[in-house]
Amino acid sequence: MSTATVFEIALAAVVLGLAIWTIAVPDTYSATVGFVAYGLLVALIWVRLDAVDVALTEAAIGGGLGGVMLLGAAARLRGSEVATAGRCSPTVRLSAAILSASTAAMLAFAILLLPNPPPTLAPAAVSNAGATGMANPVTNVLMAFRGMDTMLEKVVLLLAIVGVWSLAADRNWGGRQGPRHEADPKGVLAFLARLLPPAGIVVGIYMLWTGADHPGGAFQGGAVLASMWLLVIMAGLADTPPVSSPRLRLVLVAGPGLFLAVGFGGLCFGAAFLAYPVAIAKPLILGIEVAMTLTIAATLALLLAGAPERSVEP
Amino acid sequence: MSGVTVFGSFAAAAIGLGLYGLITNPRPLRKIIAFNLVGSGVFLLFGIVGRRGTAAGVGNDPVPQALVITGIVVAFSATALAIALLLRLFQTGGPLTLGSRAPPGPRSDPSGD
Amino acid sequence: MLPPASALATTTSGFLLVLSIAIPVAGILLAFTLGDRYVRQVALAVVPLGLAIAGAILLAVPQGGGLIVYLLGAWSPPLGVALRADGLSAVMLATTAIVICVVAVFATTDFRPASDARTSFAFWILLLAVWAALNMIFVGGDLFTLYVALELLTFAAVPLVSLDGRAETLQAALRYLVFALLGSVLYLLGAALLYGFYGTLDMVLMSRVVSAQPGVLIAVALMTIGLLAKTALFPLHLWLPSAHAGAPAAASAILSGLVVKGSFFILLRLWFDVIPGLPSFAAAQFLAALGTGAIVIGSVVALRQERLKLLVAYSTLAQIGYLFLMFPLAVNAVGQLETGQALAAGLLQTISHATAKAAMFLAVGSIYTELGHDRITGLGGAARVLPLSVLTFAVGGLALMGVQPSGAAFAKELLLQEAMRTGQWWWAAVLHAGGMFTTAYVLLVLAFALAPSDQPIAPIQTALPRRDLAALALATCSLLLGLVPWEPYLPISHDVMPKLFSRDGLAKLLLSVLGGATLAILLNPWRHPLAASSGWKAMGKVLEPLRRICFRFGDLVDKADSILRQWAAAGISLLLLGLALAVLMFAAN
Known about the structure:
The complex is a heterotrimer. By secondary structure, chain A is an all-alpha fold.
């Protein structure tokens, strides 16, 4: 057995342990902490699978922002735990365990049966990269070959925002999301919130820019920018904008809006909907990605902030 | 290919664990976490499929990678919506379970008198 | 349905498919940006556009030889994504456009930015989103694009449930969301495996290479249960009654009429177009058996509801079961699913239910607003005070029951023919029983609404007749569906139609009305105002022992339903179904 395999087995075992802990531990807050650790280690698995783009996304969105969101919810729900602890009967748990295990076994069996040689679209993706002028094949798939999926997924994000906003009490409609954060202006959080954002913003923009040719892109860059904004909000240095703000709404639709506009451009003047003319493909795609990064950053941060809870101040 | 086997079994196990948690744990937040566990297993499966499809100098087939990135973002927004619903339910003082109470059943006498 | 030769190049009218998705999406973005005040205007401007696009596709499909195709970004599959519309897609697109249009007219008075900024903002955007997602589902040619569309549909549907912000509806929305997410993640799991086997997600390319390997069967089983969970087929219906009954009327109409059809349509595509040879006889029988369970449980529980909205929601549960009866009837001699008459009949049922049920929910919404309640026992005299709403409910109900010339009657006759042709008499029996159950709950509601009231009832609020007229038009559509010339879109022979009006057809109708009336009397526990009359009392004495037995049976069904609606029970059933389907398919191949 090679060292690499030993490492992989050890990594899988540790992550599996965390997954079991996350499901089994009685206290919800501990489970959440377990899940955050799990998410970060899964990012390592993605690196081992040679999928650095996904590893970055998993670490930033799945582990990082998702973790903050789950921890925040667990903290707010802490008092309610006792009242709702109605556990299933042992019979139910046993049958659920047997069935879940059989499903997992069936799945593992199916994975072992995957064909050899494996089918792949990698050569097709690489040989068509010339049409966009970008060297990162993942960005090409996201922005060109499967652009429709990416655009619709931006609409999914927007709908999530609409859904979260729709949960406001009527009196708070148009107001600001989430509770107001008051932090000690001389505390650690405020210090970090002044120190990190300049660097974070640079990192976010770099991730977006480098995504054209190397791992990175709008999602990862957007997630970094979102976390910087959240840090500033949580430190009490800034507040969430009121949901009725026209500027905010413009930022939230900028990404899908530009994507759709370029798509229509292709439909009217080009080869097809979402087809980019070869000469200007790269600038067009980068332009969409810039708008998308802004949209993603704002969307992710506001999804974390939760339903509008405060009416617009008079 | 051994890494693929190891992580493949892990992905299946994560999905099984997540399904178990999703079914048995009565607390909604734990169900949401369990759903994320299932999701991460499914995404890893895409990663394994992609890793097997390494070719043309690319270590992992870019198509499944792109699908996973889309999937992660969708799963994140689903989690956000679920948590917002849960917190709102908590605020309104509703029951924090997903158990479904019977709609008020008929109480009248069958004979109709 | 998808002829392989021409499925991989853009056809002349293919751009219409892009527009059918891009126009509602543009509407969403515009409405979101312009904000609360203009959101309704934007939505109302998009509605006629969308209707026109659906109409154009309806015209274009027969001209294009039954199939129009568009390659997005001019990339051909497997690397790119194709949109395709065949007869099935065209029919579904048109139905969706009509239902959305009617609901929009109905909702203009309910969701006004001036009086209620929050709900109107959410409702109109979500309405457009449901539309975009459904159109994407009907024309999507790629399994992952369909996943994104499915999620888009979920994200649009869930907030509709909890628009009023009460704890009950928030809980219903959360339950719906988590269960629906479980469904879509299982679908995605299957799609991942299929990509691993074939290196493509395009449905046409996959259908050419797919074979009955164990791994593929597992993938199909997982995708199927995921879609069943989202369609709320018994026993996976825990989320449906509370979600559909709790939402505002216009939202319920969308959820019950259209949203559950989205995942159902993907299931049809998967089984009939991608893997027609794999599921085979046993798996198809199994699905229809679940459908039978849905018909019995849904109908019996519906008959015992006190609230009209819950009755209609449970009726949706039963009708979803009805949709699955076509699967075994579509299996041909060599064990392949055939895109023939059975599928066409099933699709006809789908659109009949979409139109009739949406109209019924709208009518119930009007009754609720005007009476201030929807207790079935308190409906006495409603027909006199709210003639239009009750008429709409009645017409929708008649269409659902399968009175000639409704789409439901036509579909039932086609399915009965197929059952006789393939020798599966048991499904003919279920079809007849299902018709009787439907008749039972429709008659029940009408019996209460047409009964005289002891005290005069005064509507607390009078609605504009425009609302009711829109709903009535939709119900009438459903009632006339059998007269539409379907040949360009669905493989249906119209020689069935005269049969419907023959003495035989009318006898069948009479039978189902009599059976339905008996079921309603036997199973419904409420006391009808006429029950005091002497003739009724005499009959009551005869029926009394039978009624007691039936009431016991109803109690049992109620109990079974409330157990199945427990989260753990539904989760366990979900996994059990997955394993059962996989085993059945293994055995057959």
